[in-house]
Amino acid sequence: MADTPTAARRALLLAALAPAFACAPRARPVTAPISVPGIRAVDVAASRDVAFDSVVRQLARADIVFFGEQHDDPETHRVEFGLLDAIGRAGRPVILSLEMFERDVQSVLDDYLAGRIAEADLLARARPWDRYVTDYRPMVELARARGWPVVASNVPRTMAAAVGRKGLAALDTLNATERSWAARENLCPDDAYRRRFLATMRGHSAGGAA
Predict the structure, then answer these.
(1) CA proximity to 146, closest of 96, 76, 107
(2) Ranges of residues in the chain whose predicted pLDDT is under 50
(3) Is residue 76 within 8 Å of residue 131, measured between CB atoms?
(4) CA atoms of 102 and 127, how far apart (whole Å)
(5) How many CB atoms lie within 10 A of CB 177?
(6) What torsion do the CA atoms of 102, 59, 184, 193 make, to the nearest 10 degrees?
């Protein structure tokens, strides 16, 4: 929840999503209503409970906020929508970045947000995760209603699979367009963080594509 000090703070980037707190939404089509009584917000570093409004104020001052989530927990998604809604109401411009869309479908997502295609076209062409309608649609619709950009931030699955089989050398076989869908720089030191990350991912539930 720490601030990220920079010379220019223009938009708050909210990157792929997480549980924390609840509030009542006031937005157009919402699939998952906020209904999570008894939620506690905890500042882990300080070992104390914190008020929801205080959390929102802290996050709204940051340039980038990363959320982590339990993909298959419906309550998580109801709570994270509430947090997204509240941060947006704090007055900062917001960019929503979702790993639930792959980078090669950004133009499809842009067309939907701009009203150039119907939601049925988005669902048919953007390869959304299996639980998109119940878990992630509310946030996309909130962004659409408020005019926020939504960034498709995940590497295409086929490219990730190729790297899994062949290592980072697989990226050298891509054309310029395909290469732009992967990170410009890949740092993979064999350190304690990497080992913890791999152990976590082995027990992590993937979202899956529709």
Answers:
(1) 96
(2) 1-10, 16-36, 209-210
(3) no
(4) 8
(5) 8
(6) -100
- Backbone phi and psi for residue 180, each to the nearest 5 degrees, phi listed first: -70, -15
DSSP calls for 156-183: PHHHHHHHHHH-GGGGGGS-HHHHTTS-
Radius of gyration over alpha carbons of the chain, in Å? Answer: 18
**What pLDDT was estimated at residue 97?**
96
The pLDDT, as a whole number, for residue 30 is 36
User: Does the global pTM surpass 0.90?
Assistant: no
Kindly report the number of other CB atoms within 10 A of residue 107's CB atom. Answer: 11
Cα distances (angstroms) measured from residue 196 to each of 52, 173, 191, 192, 203: 30, 30, 9, 6, 11
Choose among 106, 71, 110: nearest CA to 80: 71
